[in-house]
Structure formats: C-alpha cells, structure tokens
Amino acid sequence: MKQSQEAWKIEAFVDGELDLASQLEIEDRLPGDPALRRQVDEIRSLREQVREHAERHVAPAALRARIAGRLQGAQAVPAAPAQATVPRRASAPARPPATGSGAAEAIQRWLGWRPLATSLGFAAVLAVAVNLAWLQSSRDERLTDAVVASHVRSTLGQHLVDVASSDHHTVKPYLSSKLDFSPPVDALQVPGSVFVGGRVDYLDGRPVAALVYRQGEHVVNSFVWPGPAAESQPRFAVERGYQTAHWTAGGMNHWVISDVNREEFQRIVKAVQANDAVR
Amino acid sequence: MSDGESWARFELLAMPHLDAAYNLALWLTRNDHDAQDVVQDAMVRAMRYIGGLRSEGARAWLLQIVRHTCYSWLKENRPAEKVLLDDPDDAWRDLPAPSADEPPAIAMRKADRQQINEAIAALPIGYREVLILRELEDLSYNDIARIAEIPVGTVMSRLARARGLLRTALAPTARPVLRPVPRSSQGGAS
C-alpha cells in the first residue's frame, strides 16, 4: 500500500495536483534520483500521447439543435394553465340587466382574475429587481456577458457567418458595406487556423464586425468596433469556461473569445494583434 | 425564476459545455446513438436544476448530471456491463518494467492514434471516466471527485491505475504494431 501511494503521489506531481510542499519536495528529489526521473518522464509521455491523440468528440449539430429546441419549447407550456383561470364569462354576450347578480358577477370576475393580477404584480416587482441588478453590474461585465452570449449563439445555430469566405477581399467589403467602419480582416498566422468568414453582430449598443476562425474543432470569434484612441494591452480572462481577451488598438475595440486551451488562445490573440499592427 | 430566464441561464451556463457532455457520454457508452440519448436526457434534467447553479463550476456540475444519467442508462440497458473496480490497488505496479534498452518515452511515441483510442475504450469504465475527465476535459482532481462521486484519494488511485493499464496496452510487446511500408520503396517497385 505504501508503495502504491508513493506511485499515486508521482502521478499527482505530474498533474500538478499535490500541495505545494509535496510538489517542491519531489522537485528537489528529481535531480538526484534517476529512477524517479524516469518514472516522471514515463507519466508525462503517456499524458502527452493521450492528450494529443485521444478523440475529444464534438456534439453533433443536430443534437445541439434538438436540445435547444426542446428546452426552449418547454418554457411555453407551463404558461397555459394560468391563462385558463380567466373566466370566459367576461366576454359572454348581453345578459339580462339584474343589478344584484351584476355585482356578484363583478366580484366573481375579480376573483377569477386575481391569480393573474397577482402574478403580473409579482412579475413587475421581479422585473424591477432584475433591472436594478442589471444596472448595478458594471458595463464591462455586461459586455463580457454579451460577448459570451454572442459567441455561444454563433456556435449553436446556423448563423456563424453572414459571408463564408476565407478571402479577405470578399469579407472586408461586405462588412464595410454593412458597418460605419472598415474592420481589419485577415487570416491568422497560427498553425491550424482556418478563416471561416465574417458576420455583423450587435454588441455594446452598436453593430460590430465578427470575424470567425476555426482552430481544429474550436470556433474563434473576434469582435471589432471603433473605440477610444488610447491603446491598451490585452486583458485575459476565463468566462464560463471560455478564454476571452479584450484590448484597444488603432482606435478599435477588440474582443476575442474561444474555447481553445489557454496557450493556443494566447497565440491566437497575438496573431490578431499582429494583423492589426500590419494594417 | 421565469422559464424564459431559465433558458437564458441555461444557454449561457450549460450549453457551452455540451461538447464536454457529449464527449463524456460517448466515451462511457461507446456508442454515438446512445450518447445522444443520454445527453439529451441529461440536459433536460439539468434544466430543472439550473436555478441552483452558480456560474463557476458549471462544467463539473453538468458533467456530474451526464455521468449520473449515463450510469442509470447503462444499468437499465446494458446490465451485463457490471463495473468491477475493487481489484487491489497494488496489482498494477506488477506490470513488467520497460526494458532498459528502449526508453519508454520512445516506445510510447510509436503508438498511433487509433491504438490509443482503442486502448482507452477498452479500459474498465471507472478508470476510463477519470482518465477522460482528466486528460480530455483537464479537470482538477477535486472536480473529478465531485463528478464521479468518489473521494479524491480514489481519483488518484484510479487515474494511476488507468494510466498503468494504458501503458501496458500500448507497450510494444503487448501487441505487434504493423508498420507501414515506406512510401519510397513502393514507388520504386512500380
């Protein structure tokens, strides 16, 4: 048992999952312990092999659409019973004018409407609360949310690009004609990167250019729109599992988002910056 | 939360991890059609609990539901695939040591894509899942423990065991590797 725990410990060391003290301890032992070194190399090599070759299956578009359709469709169903509580009698045609029964009917009608009125009132309160929360969240956060939502939407539906072309002479004029600015459009100098095309999207309260690239199975969305003249360095963040970066250069706001891994993402961002610099 | 909000939240938090969900389901069921069924069921279940989800850890949260749905599905549809995992933890260390003259790193490099995928698919499900979650989803031991509903120590032992089994399966002695005839010699003959 002792021996096997030692073995797990080395695996965990390679995975970077040990507490710092143990991690450092093994690191210290490495130079003077060839057997340990070999073991670590062996684990690393297998790890790289698996990461490089094991298939990461991508959900078929049809499955994605089916799930979106089913779950989105599901929301309309529970609303129906609430409607049914409204008494149909309200719209009944002329009835004999009898004051007594008229008052009773009015009360009955009010009672019938009450659940709906209550729920409307509740919805109003909720809407106000949601709006307040919305106002409180900073503009940056909202923009981040919008960028993530736009990226997700582009990968979910059929609407990834308006103009599908790897030729920037086709994409650039199209985008320029739809926008009040001319975005930088170029393929990325990153191995394995494919320029898919561009589309017009809506972010930060205005139409923006979205350039779309594929990196293997991953989609990269690169958003551009006019911004302040001040230049800024890319700020990287991980939002809901997506790598994001945003910066300002050449009077343009840039937002790049993808689900590639961090190293690859940094290469992509560098390439986007390089294209901008060339222009 | 209204239903419209639920879907908006779901679209934002859960849908981005659909590929991860499908990948796990496919590796566990080893069948595309079954994986799609499982994922669809899992997503419907997930939608019901979306209100309780915080934005961090959405992937682990979703994968936990997917895994759970997978196991229920397997139990119902493939009862023969009973998972046996309680072999002694030390057993895998008895594997033959790599021979001295061929460093394992080099021997390993020869294993090709198909061989690796087949070897992973052949792993017992409990080892397969920790390996997939670790190497393909790059999840931490803690997340894996949460998803697979096992202690972190068990994650470590299973991962070590999974890698040990894989190493044996991919060792050059385990299976003769067919080497393609070099292209130049083919060209010369014709």
How is this structure best described in words?
The complex is a heterodimer of chains A (279) and B (190). By secondary structure, chain A is an alpha+beta fold. Chain A has three domains: 50 residues, no CATH class; 30 residues; 140 residues, Phosphorylase Kinase, domain 1. Chain A is 53% helix and 19% strand. Chain A has nine helices and seven strands. Chain A has a seven-stranded antiparallel beta sheet, sandwiched between helices. In chain A, helix 1 packs across helix 3. Chain B folds into two domains: 75 residues, Rna Polymerase Sigma Factor, Chain: A (Orthogonal Bundle), CATH 1.10.1740.10; 80 residues, Winged helix-like DNA-binding domain superfamily/Winged helix DNA-binding domain (Arc Repressor Mutant, subunit A). The radius of gyration of chain B is 20 Å and the shape is globular. The C terminus of chain B is likely disordered. The interface between A and B is large, with 54 and 62 residues.
Number of domains of chain B: 2
The residue ranges of chain A in which pLDDT falls below 50 over 5 or more consecutive positions are 76-100
Structural category of chain B is mainly alpha
The first-level CATH class of the largest domain in chain A is given as: Alpha Beta
What would you say the CATH architecture of the largest domain in chain A is? 2-Layer Sandwich
Instruction: Report the portion of residues of chain A in β strands.
Output: 15-25%
